[in-house]
Specification:
Layout: H1 2-17, E1 22-23, E2 30-32, H2 34-47, H3 49-52, E3 68-69, H4 75-84, H5 98-109, E4 118-120, H6 123-131, H7 156-159, H8 162-170, H9 172-175, E5 182-187, E6 192-200, E7 204-209, E8 214-218, E9 222-227, H10 242-252
Antiparallel strand pairs: 1-3, 2-4, 5-6, 5-9, 6-7, 7-8
Length: 258
């Protein structure tokens, strides 16, 4: 068993260390159960952290937690390389038990998040959901296209794990980042400003208001400033089917532009 685990770790290190930099894509319909992810965590924490680190970013140019690889690979590709080896590359095939193979792949693909069970669907269909039924493009910008009222999602596939993205779709308030909390400002003259806080320094607060107007408000002019605790984003728990949510997740994790 120990030999098999070491072989898995060696293979993963080879996968992320060879070839030109690229981002791994999830398979159509890939399902990562919590049990598989937890099993993969046990393998990773006992054998992989010495090279890749606890957060998966111990090797330059590689970030396993965020799915940043130097060789693009689907789940099937990973499995084939691990079990079949690579001719001419000095890597022999390894006879691993299916649960071992499933666990290590699931843990990496789930972004090291042990709290979830996630199904990842088809990115092309997910983009269609994003732009049509989900109406996500009516609030979010992607790669320079779309409104500015909600957070820009151009790099969300790198910034958030699969589990975090799933929670954002199903329970937006619980997954809301502090930096994305809407702000409610009342000035000393009685004016109300609502929007997103973009920046704050010693003397002023910069806010993108609900009309997408950039406002710089002096703190000396602010009577009250409160952050909302409820996300303005609707939950898709009942608005989308489970397959549509899986497809939307698949699209979101492809958004990796800084």
């Amino acid at each position: 068993m120990l030999m098999r685990v070491r072989q898995v770790v060696w293979v993963v290190a080879w996968l992320v260390g060879a070839g030109a930099t690229a981002h791994a894509q999830a398979d159509h319909g890939s399902q990562y159960t919590q049990a598989d992810i937890v099993a993969g965590y046990r393998l990773y924490s006992s054998q992989c952290t010495q090279c890749h680190g606890a957060n998966g970013d111990g090797i330059s140019g590689v970030d396993l937690r965020r799915g940043v690889f130097r060789r693009a690979a689907s789940d099937d590709d990973l499995a084939k390389v691990i079990t079949g080896g690579v001719a001419g590359a000095g890597m022999p095939p390894f006879a691993l038990q299916p649960p071992e193979l499933t666990g290590i792949i699931a843990f990496i693909r789930a972004g090291f998040d042990q709290t979830v069970s996630v199904t990842v669907g088809d990115a092309a269909r997910g983009r269609a959901v994003f732009e049509t039924k989900g109406a996500c493009a009516s609030c979010h910008r992607v790669n320079g296209r779309g409104p500015l009222g909600a957070p820009d999602l151009s790099g969300v596939g790198l910034a958030r794990t699969l589990g975090a993205l799933q929670r954002s779709l199903l329970d937006p308030t619980s997954a809301m980042l502090p930096s994305n909390r809407p702000v409610h400002i009342v000035t000393r003259s009685g004016q109300t400003v609502r929007g997103r806080r973009l920046n704050e320094d010693t003397y002023s607060v910069q806010v993108l208001d609900t009309t997408e107007r950039l406002r710089s408000i002096a703190k000396s002019d602010i009577r009250a400033m409160n952050f909302e605790t409820t996300s303005p984003m609707p939950s898709y728990a009942s608005g989308l089917t489970s397959d549509e949510i899986a497809d939307l997740l698949a699209y979101l994790i492809t958004l990796r532009e800084p």
